[in-house]
Amino acid sequence: MATQLARPAPVGDPPSAARLTREDRVELLRTMLLMRGIEERAMTLYRQGKVPGSFYDGFGQEAVSAGAAFAMAPEDRLCVLHRDLAAHLVRGVEPARILAQYMGRAGGVTHGRDGNVHFGDFRLGCVGMVSMLPDMMLVATGMAMAFKLRGERRCALTWCGDGATSRGDWHEAMNWAAVQRLPVVFVLENNQFAYSTPLERQFAVDPVERAAAYGFPGVTVDGNDVEAVFGATLDARERALAGDGPTLIEAVTMRMHGHAAHDDMRYVPPQLLESWRTRDPIELYERKLVAHGVDVAAVRAETAAEIEAGCEAALAMPMPDPATATDGVFCDGDAEPLGDGRAPWSGFAEGRAERWR
Ligand SMILES: Cc1ncc(C[n+]2csc(CCOP(=O)(O)OP(=O)(O)O)c2C)c(N)n1
Ligand SMILES: [Mg+2]
Questions:
Q1: What is the CB neighbour count within 10 angstroms for residue 45?
Q2: Is the model more confident about 236 or about 1?
Q3: What is the pLDDT of residues 70-84, one digit of tens each?
Q4: Considering all CA atoms of the chain, what is the largest pairwise distance in Å, rounded to the nearest integer?
Q5: How many angstroms does the Cα of residue 100 sit away from the middle of ligand 1?
Q6: Which is the closest atom of ligand 1 to the Cα of 255?
Q7: Measured in angstroms, how far is the CA atom of residue 255 from the centroid of ligand 2?
């Protein structure tokens, strides 16, 4: 059974999730709905031949990127992976720019330099994804090292897959972060598979246990419970900023689609998919918010309209001019210093991040 190695998730809200306001909760739901809707729309565009290459999505894993990104402050830095679209949305990347990115259009985040999931708007604090896995573990650790050396009170976060944990560089990052007590959070997105390889063919112990061997805490959360992911990340960030070093958070979830658009995932046992289908992170959260009196149908309608408008805008964007192919690829003159990553919509500016610290 592929889930054998995954520990049971703790029951109930983490205490820190109690700090979420009703507006925060609606924002979390909105972000997950946007991620799902954008990826569904992009899959259709892919099938229409408008998305070059392949297409990767995080269907069923929306809570992992939404919850973790939501716990981070504007000055923090996020290394966003291929199933973590909600993190870009939390930081304020608009649907039109994301859909344009997938289609390789001039208005995409990389202006057509990469028509795929390897992107990040550094002005919003998202580091463009390095495709070699798990190199973002090292990028996040390096950034955390820089923050510590400069005495800056900020934190780096990276997601990584279960497959990534078997690579040597994953262990190097874990070790160095621990030795230096770096302000970094590692979110292990345990989605039961690395391409077609199930967990029990990847490792003999749950990788969250490895954190203890390196000398820092590893915690397991229900990766389909957005507030559980949020709470664990918030705690890990507080630990990091207190100088107590890294945390490994294992978010247990399920990759509900194939590895990418071309993969029919016939290797996934149907009953495994069925059992996870009843635990869809968006449906679970909608049920919770209905109990809080939120008009969930209205939030759904708003996000659907936002995605449609974004898609129309992206489809109207031109392809990049080939003459500009190397523009922005190499650094001209001095490197632009990173700003504070403030996302205008996010409410960080209204002191929400202050409350969470
Ligand atoms: C070093 C390296 N080898 C192979 C790949 C191709 N590849 C991309 S995603 C992936 C599966 C990774 O599995 P996991 O880490 O569990 O992440 P998931 O896709 O399940 O989110 C592979 C093999 C890669 N990007 N980098
Ligand atoms: Mg995986």
A1: 18
A2: 236
A3: 999 888 999 999 999
A4: 56
A5: 24
A6: 20
A7: 7
